[in-house]
Amino acid sequence: MSSEATSTEPASAGKFTPKQPVQLNPPKDDPFTTEELAKCDGSDSSRPTCVAIKGTVFDVTGNSAYKEGGAYRVFAGHDASRALAKSSLKAEDISPEFENLDEKEKKVLDDWFAFFSKRYNILGKVVNL
Question: Distance from CA of residue 96 to its chain's centroid?
């Protein structure tokens, strides 16, 4: 019997593992208002560059794609759940709303969450005050 058959991890567990190992810090649970998250858009070097997915705030500071001129700059400082689920880079799709997405889009969003979770430190959660 192979060890795969007895594993409790889903078959896709290793799917998003980075090619180069990433040393992540323990996840933080700091509260971020949407205003605070917006200040983490990469324009202020004294703040981390952040992207939120499903309310979880990830520090993407080390990835130039989220900086000025980068392909994913539109996501920086926002909860980009809806846009990621729709595989969209359009500013009008940037929204934390994901509950009313279809099942295929929710699966895509879950995949993005898994991808980010294996690469970027979690700094906290977006809170509505």
Answer: 11
